[in-house]
Amino acid sequence: MAGQHPEKDDPETRTDETRKLPDSEVEREALRLAETTDVSQNQAKELIRKHGKNSAEAEKEARNFKAEG
After folding, report:
1. Which domain of life is it from (predicted)?
2. pTM for the complete prediction?
3. How many domains are there within the chain?
């Protein structure tokens, strides 16, 4: 059955369910993101949970989030 859903294997198209991180890693990444982009730590946690380990996407959205606010 492998290969029927290649999007599940592609990190760019994985769903949130397949990108879940351990809480400790979410906390660590959220702190780093909050410090580097000036969003709140809660906002950073939401972005990390949404984008998983794709830190470039999380940072991009955080910068857009900051610019809009």
Report:
1. Bacteria
2. 0.65
3. 1
